[in-house]
TrEMBL record:
It comes from the Bacteria. The lineage of its organism: Bacteria, Pseudomonadati, Pseudomonadota, Gammaproteobacteria, Vibrionales. InterPro entries: DUF3389. This is DUF3389 domain-containing protein.
Amino acid sequence: MTIVFSAGRIIANQHEVVVRLDGTARVSLQAAADDITLLGNGANVITAMGSGVNWSFRLDSAQQLEELADVLGIAIQ
């Protein structure tokens, strides 16, 4: 599944998440689904921590966070 947000797009399946940020640098962030935490309650933040991975960013809406939670099969905290 692909989710487009203001800074780029998220490509996700039940095993991993890849974030591709727009811009000339063409930044890509990747993490296993087990390393992902989704923070709701208005924050709409996705974080990746573990196995040398440590990044986070804010999504545009709670709907995007819910779509990602459905694909990954993890609960929003």
